[in-house]
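Final report, Chapter 2: Outcomes

The project's central promise was a pipeline that accepts a single protein chain and returns its three-dimensional structure in a standardized token representation, suitable for archiving and comparison. That pipeline is now operational. To close this chapter, we reproduce one record exactly as it appears in the project archive, with the input sequence first and the structure output second.
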Amino acid sequence: MIRNVVFDVGNVLVKLHYQSFVGYLVKSGVDMSDLQSWLKSVDLEGHERGDVPGEALLDRIAAMAARPMDPAELRTQWLSMFERWDEMFALASGLMADYRVYLLSNIGDMHWAHLDSLYGLDTLVHGACASFRVGAIKPHPDIYRKAESMFDLDPAATVFLDDLLPNVTAARECGWHAIHHTNAGVARSQLRALGVRLPAPFT
């Protein structure tokens, strides 16, 4: 029986539109021809583990540009890639009457502070495990175990929604139920299949 429902943040609770940020960097003369290599070069994983603060990350990005970048504009562009997914917010908050609901996200300090200021992530549900705070990122099993410890989760009674298949697979390998989130309708359907009682108006 499911007692805990855990949501990722990016592309689950909020839609992630990074294309505009990439375009901004290209116009500034940053080589974005290989996005995965670029992410490694700025050490995004280190940032999301909390090893590289947000301001330091933006300094690294600015240093790659062929032309000087306005720090305020760079920061604005970095923070402006999210859109609230109203349907998923309603689902998460509605489930709280019958389930323990948590957040588990790979995220850095600056994005977290921004989204918390907009949507109150730290108090939105029953608890939040942000990667930069716990020093571990998905899909490494450490972050799932840290969430279990933080929230007293029984893996067999926990379902996790994430948009990235490796993170879903890792959760299952830790004994959790997991849903590969692609859209709100599929998420609701798969939650129902696990016996989760959906709140109105989703019943």
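Archive annotation: The domain at 4-15+82-193 is CATH 3.40.50.1000 (Rossmann fold).
This record, like all others produced under the grant, will remain available to the consortium after the project formally closes.
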